[in-house]
Every structure is written in C-alpha cells, then in structure tokens.
Design a protein that fits this description.
The complex is a heterodimer of chains A (114) and B (113). In chain A, 0% of the residues lie in helices and 53% in strands. Chain A has 114 residues and is mostly beta strands. The termini of chain A are far apart. In chain A, 39% of the residues are buried. Chain B contains no helices and ten strands. The chains are: A mainly beta (114), B mainly beta (113). Chains A and B meet through strand 5, strand 9 and strand 10 of A and strand 3, strand 4 and strand 9 of B.
C-alpha cells in the first residue's frame, strides 16, 4: 500500500458526460500528479499540482482540468467525454518539488466511456 | 480507426532464474532514475531508484545499473519468482523539470514455475 488513495475504483459513463476523480496523497506529500494509462499510449503525464498551485502540464486535453485543495487532496475533472477517454487514471504524490524524489502511485480509477 | 494494444517487449524466464530488464533513457541531462513494477489492474509500485552520481545500487533481490555513457539503465532481479510477473517501467527526472518524471514504455516480465 503506497498511502495514496483514489476514488472511485471504477467508473462507467456515457459519451458527453462529465466525471470527477478524486485523490488523496500520502501524508506529508505536497505534490500531486495525474497520469492517464491507455492500451495504446502507455503512461502519460497529465498535470502536476504543488501545495494548491498548478506546477506542470503534460499531455492534458482542454476538456480535462484539475485542482488541489487546501487539505492537499486533488480532483481531476473530465468533461465532454469521448470513447477514447476510456483508460486507467492514476494519481501519484511526492514530498515536494525538488527533483530526485520518488513518486508513489495510487491504485487508479478505471474509466469506461460507452 | 481500430486501436492497437501497446506491444511491450516481453521477457520470459523460469522461476529461480535471474532476470535483466533494460531501459534506454532519453535525456543525457537526467540525474535521477526509478524502476517501477506494475501488476495487472494495479498502480505502479516503486522498486528502487538511483542517482546519476552512482552506477550501481542494490536492494532486496534487485540491483539497478546505470551507464550514463550510453544512456542505459538495467534492473536485475535475482532468483525470479512467479510473483515478479508484471510490467516494469523505468522513469527519469531531468533537472529543470522539478519532480516530474518521464516514463519508458515498459517491459513485461513473465515468470513460469
């Protein structure tokens, strides 16, 4: 158990809908990262937050957004869902911003868009 | 069009053998590297890390080797067990990119009893 929690574990929804994925980082970790993992794209970095502020962006679509709250939990919002958004979404956390720190991953949310 | 599954390199070994999983990293400026293990349906799990001022680091049954000259990283697993069957990813951190990681495509390790 990494100490990172994610809810829900599974989500089934329809195209055009909007969903929110939730992540709680390890105790003491200030950085939260979101990743998408699909069969044909591997593990893709989406976005990073540090202590409530957006810090880095990866391959995140404009339909997707995220935020980190004062209690450090984070939410990833996916809107106008398409079939191709079906994937595993992982949250990871690390202590801070400095490089050379491991990220610890949650169990993921499996999203299926029908 | 039809989506195609990611074709991962696969390493098949017998239980008890030693396994070596290789990774070519992308940025010569990267100074921190991690190996992750991902079992089916689970999140990536930290195995071992190494900084660029080292060329070898050992953990429990695992050793990571770093060759900066050719930008190559390897993970050696001693006495491989069926429970080691998983996809293994290497990841690198590059100075100037905070703590973000760039992940490799992964290698699937299959251990048969």
């Amino acid at each position: 158990d990494s100490g990172v929690t994610q809810t829900p574990k599974h989500l089934i929804t329809a195209t055009g809908q909007r969903v929110t994925l939730r992540c709680s980082p390890r105790s003491g970790d200030l950085s939260v990262y979101w990743y998408q993992q699909s069969l044909d794209q591997g593990l893709q970095f989406l976005i990073q937050y540090y202590n409530g502020e957006e810090r880095a962006k990866g391959n995140i679509l404009e339909r997707f957004s995220a935020q980190q709250f004062p209690d450090l939990h984070s939410e990833l919002n996916l809107s106008s869902l398409e079939l191709g958004d079906s994937a595993l979404y992982f949250c990871a956390s690390s202590v801070g911003l400095a490089g050379g720190r491991a990220q610890y991953f949650g169990p993921g949310t499996r999203l299926l868009v029908l | 069009g039809e989506s195609v599954g990611l074709h991962l390199p696969t390493l098949s070994v017998q239980e008890g053998d030693n396994s070596i999983i290789n990774c070519a990293y992308s940025n010569s400026a990267s100074d921190y590297f991690i190996w992750y293990k991902q079992e089916s349906g689970k999140g990536p799990q930290f195995i071992i890390d190494i900084r660029s001022n080292m060329d070898k680091r050992q953990g429990q049954r695992v050793t990571v080797l770093l060759n900066k000259t050719v930008k190559h990283l390897s993970l050696q697993i001693a006495a491989t067990q069926p429970g080691d069957s998983a996809v293994y990813f290497c990841a690198e951190n590059t100075p100037g990119r905070d703590s973000t990681l760039t992940f490799g495509k992964g290698t699937m390790l299959l251990v048969s009893p």
